[in-house]
Amino acid sequence: MKYYDSVANNPAVIEYLKQADKNFKALGYTEQGLLHAQHTAELVDKILNCLNYSLNEIDIAKVAGFLHDIGCAIAYPEHARSGAIMSKIILNKIGLSFNDILRIISIIGSHEDIDMIPISDLAAAVMMADKTDVRRERVIKTDFKFFDQHDRVHYAVVSNILEVSKNDGTIKLRLKIDDSICSVLEYFELFFSRIEFCKKAAGKLGLRFELYINEIKYL
Ligand SMILES: [Fe+2]
Prior knowledge:
CATH architecture: Orthogonal Bundle
CATH class: Mainly Alpha
Bound molecules: fe (ii) ion
Largest sheet: 4 strands, mixed
Distance between the termini: 35 Å
Radius of gyration: 17 Å
């Protein structure tokens, strides 16, 4: 990839994401640093590859996916906006063109705007990848008795597969939840807004979002 490898291996980027991890650990939140960045970029790659986007477009979207939560190095509130400004400085130093920087920072800056439709197809892919990243590995706490609802929901997800099908026009999230840890109802309580993001993102990509939990279709 033209830009992605330079960004994902940039020492400053890695330090910022490690700082986001430290902040979230101190706050007792789920992981939103380096591993989430890598996972988001990989999912963006998968989504756009399945939809036959060009390598250049995938590269731009993967950079945005990798950097989208970098603002959490400063603070969670307004992290999309702070992350966009941080990314502008970083990408300028790495040497991306002004036009590509603009495309990337607008994706990062708008990725939490639930009341608006995604600003582009690439923004929709980043939003979909971000909001479907629900995994046991994102739970930082090690003692179950300190788990909050967020931790329980993530911990309960034992399998998470995102399937993109251009042919039938769907993007399917298939989750396996251990319902001895968290009920399906609890999942919906906590992730209702994420589902809204996913529906908007799928629509922008010309697809319909479907959600399966323990092989039952809910959406
Ligand atoms: Fe995120």
